[in-house]
Structure formats: structure tokens, C-alpha cells
Amino acid sequence: DIQMTQSPSSLSASVGDSVTITCRASQSVSTFLNWYQQRPGTAPKVIMYAASSLQRGVPSRFSGSGSGTVFTLTISGLQPEDFGTYYCQQSYSTHLLTFGPGTRVDIK
Amino acid sequence: QVHLVESGGGVVQPGRSLRVSCAVSGFSFSSYVMHWVRQAPGKGLEWVAGISFDGSNRYYADSVKGRFTISRDNSKSTVYLQMNSLRPDDTAIYFCAREYEGGSAHPYLDYWGQGTLVTVSS
């Protein structure tokens, strides 16, 4: 089974800062890597798919990169509405999905 | 407009069974792979199970294999999760989600329901 890790587990940043979250896979997942944002009390929402493709309607301050085993999600110019928990998820194993443990983003 | 609505959650004793449902509307249900994802209180997301568009293939996390069964009724646009031999660590919000691939050939979960809470407790 493919295992996913994320770092940091949490971070606190100010409005306007740039923040980067790293996700690592236990084996290569090529670019079959997605990112989700979850605000408290709500369902997750996809923000990035195929490692670097921005989901429709998601602000362009979000960007993703990586391939193989190491991926990053960057928020350039953090906004108050960006608080929440971010999860990476691999879809390399067809229909056998794995999520990372999550990174909680707080706004200072 | 796409909607996914889960139902059937509740409080159940350890060792008992429960079935949760997810009724969908707004898209051609029979054309999509569907998944169940759960989230224990204060914890992260855990993928539970997936089912192919026609129900012929089913996929499970090791943590639920042999106890949970995913199924679907395309005539009712509904996906189910039958949960047997429930344990306290199965306590979670259970979300259903649609898998979308599109032109990228890289699948992801693009629509989610609001979730239904299952509590396993004596």
C-alpha cells in the first residue's frame, strides 16, 4: 500500500505570507496527486489535481508542483479564507486511494 | 446542480450492523466511480471503499475489508455502505464522493456529500 506523509502538521502565518506544504509518497505516484482543503464542519474540497492543475474556481494564489514521491502545495499571499486543513491524496493505485495526515493552516 | 446526500447514520452498539446511503442527483450516476471516505472526530480523512460505475469491481481499505460492503443501485442513483461487526474505532463522519477523471486521466474526488455521523458505542 502507498503511504502518504505531510509536513508540517500545522502552521500559523499572517495574511499575505506565502506558505508551502510538502507531501511525500512511500513510492512513486507519478503525478497522480491531489490536494484538498477542508474547513471545520464542512466536506473537503479539491483545489489541485494531477499535482499541478488548479481546480476550476480555485484562486490562482494556489499552486502545486512535484512528481514521483515529493510534492508541494504553495499558497502565495495567504488570505483569511484559506484557513483550514489541507490533505494530499494519491490516486496512482487505481480506485485505492490514500490521504496524507493533513496540515492545519491557521491565520495569525 | 450536483448533490450528494448521505443518510442512515446513528448510534449503534459494538458488533452490530448499520447501512448508510448516499443519494445523488444532477449527473449521470451510472457513469461514475463512487467512494466512501470517513473522518473520525478530530482526525484526518481515511478512504474506506470504492465501487466501479457498474458495480462489478469493489475496493476496500484494509481496516474495513471483510466487514464493510459497498454497493450501488444505478436505477436509484444511490450508493450504499453496509457496515457489519462495527467497532468503536469505526466512529466517524462518513462522506460519499464522486470520482472524476476528465481529460487529464488523473482521477480525483470532485463532489462530496455533507456526511453522516456513525457512532459506535455501548
Question: Can you describe what's shown?
Answer:
The complex is a heterodimer of chains A (108) and B (122). Chain A is mainly beta and 108 residues long. Chain A has no helices and 11 strands. In chain A, the strands form 2 sheets. In chain A, strands 2, 4, 5, 6, 9, 10 and 11 form a 7-stranded mixed sheet that branches. In chain A, strands 1-3-8-7 form a 4-stranded antiparallel sheet, with no helix packed on it. Chain A starts with a strand and ends with a strand. Chain B has strands spanning 3-7, 10-12, 18-25, 34-39, 45-51, 58-60, 68-73, 78-83, 92-100, 108-112, 116-120. In chain B, the strands form 2 sheets. In chain B, strands 2, 4, 5, 6, 9, 10 and 11 form a 7-stranded mixed sheet that branches. A 4-stranded antiparallel sheet of chain B has the order 1-3-8-7, with no helix packed on it. In chain B, a hairpin with a 4-residue loop joins strand 7 (68-73) and strand 8 (78-83). In chain B, 39% of the residues are buried. The interface between A and B is medium-sized, with 28 and 24 residues.
Total of helices of chain A = 0
Q: What is the residue-mean pLDDT of chain A, rounded to a whole number?
A: 96
The rough form of chain A would be described as globular
Counting helices, strands and paired strands, the structural category of chain B is mainly beta
User: Between the first and last Cα atoms of chain A, what is the distance in angstroms?
Assistant: 37 Å
> Biggest interface pair, residues each?
A-B, 28 and 24 residues
- The H/E string of chain B reads EEEEEEEEEEE
Strand count, sense and closure of the main sheet of chain A?
7 strands, mixed
Total count of strands of chain B:
11
- As a percent range, the share of strand residues of chain B is over 45%
Sheet with the most strands, sense and barrel status of chain B = 7 strands, mixed
Q: Nearest-angstrom radius of gyration of chain B?
A: 14 Å
Order of helices and strands of chain A: EEEEEEEEEEE
